[in-house]
Amino acid sequence: MSVPSLFLHGLYASYLRLPFELPDLATVTPNIARSNANLSYALPSSAVRGAWNSPFPSKKWTVHSTAQTESAVLTDEGRERWEACREALSAFDFSVEEKDKILGKAFGHVHSPYWGEERKKEIPQYEIVSEILDYLRSLGLSDGDLLKVLKKFPEVVGCSLEHDLKTNVKILEDKWGIRGKQLRNLLLRNPKALGYNVDCKGDCIAQCTRCWARF
What we know:
Distance between the termini: 110 Å
Mean pLDDT: 75
Keywords: Transcription, Transcription regulation, Transcription termination, Transit peptide
Number of helices: 10
Organism: Turnera subulata
Protein name: Mitochondrial transcription termination factor family protein
Structural class: mainly alpha
Radius of gyration: 35 Å
Order of helices and strands: HHHHHHHHHH
Number of strands: 0
Helix content: 55-70%
GO molecular function, one term: nucleic acid binding
Family: Belongs to the mTERF family.
Shape: globular
């Protein structure tokens, strides 16, 4: 082989070796381990495990937690009143969560389409809630019936006894001739009739959830 050929052969061999030299695996492995360790510290543990916890809790939990949050920031007196109103609902087979939902919707702590944006937050009073429940019982509704009414129309315990409930029952009796057993059946089917306090007479005023036009 000529001198130029030897020179070119050696140069070519060097060229092949340099770019493809492999790094020492003994030094690479610890680096990878350190990178993984750093990554694990940078991410939440759930992400490292591969678990995914949705940031959006279930609707049921949200409603309950909203009512709990409202009661949690109340004064001691307010919390006592809230607890007392839970007791007023103890005759029915409701969980604490369901009681909070009923009271929350009735008194503006949980949004309700029935009130729209008009309902201001109030702390329920045991006497008022109990008086409304007693009045409904006087209409022939059993506790089993009231359980169904409260599920369909929880806002009823936040309505005015005089201006809403008694007024509407009188309208149903006098104008429609609905009383006694017929009234009971109506209230089981459509308890929201107890809360109608608007009558647009066909000229909508955007308060449909409380309007007699729905009757």
